[in-house]
Amino acid sequence: MTFRRIVFFVLQILIIPSVFAEKTPAPTDEKLVLFVQQRTNAVKITQSPFEMGQFVVARCVGPSPEEVHTAEKEKTFGISDPHLKKFVHVYVSHDGQAAMRTDSGVFPQGAIVLKEKFSDPEGKHTELFTGMIKREAGYNPECGDWEFFTLPGDASQISSRGKLQDCMDCHVEYKKSDYVTKNYAHISFYPKPTGQ
Questions:
Q1: How far apart are CA 157 and CA 6, in angstroms?
Q2: Structural domain containing residue 95
Q3: For the domain that residue 81 is a member of, what is the CATH number?
Q4: Residues of the chain with pLDDT under 70
Q5: Residues with Cβ within 8 Å of residue 88, at least 6 apart in sequence
Q6: What residues does 130 pair with on adjacent strands?
Q7: Whole-prediction pTM value?
Q8: In this structure, how many other beta carbons lie within 10 angstroms of the beta carbon of residue 87?
């Protein structure tokens, strides 16, 4: 074979199929709702509900002007309002657990990170679910190719989904950790990924 034919053959086998490869489709709304409803089958990151900072609480749920003012006082002066406390449990799909354990790990396409938000420290009154799905390269390059979604506390249906600007505004600050905050991941993580 000539050099030209060898190069052409290698291109056909290695490069050309990847250009035409089908993208893995994002989960349907129904599959996301099912994931949330069956979240106990995912990897639970937090052993007990983790208290969210008030500034994050205010940014994460579309705050009222009063909540923004209170959160700014908390951030600037360390003054807190106990009535605004929120707590979360965090779950990750099995394919994302290894990336969750590191500060800089990149999540694989299809991984899901889910936050279950509570108004009580015992984690008995779910108010809201927020989540992220790692999508194909190029889906959302401004925020690590993550798609965001929300559900009401009863996990009955998707409330919003897509390149949600409110979510992106917060997560863009966490580029080093693949746009996932992970401030809760170092509190407790169990179980360890299989094979480690």
A1: 53
A2: 23-177
A3: 3.50.70
A4: 1-23, 54-84, 185-196
A5: 46, 49, 50, 52, 115, 116, 117, 118, 184
A6: 115, 150
A7: 0.73
A8: 21
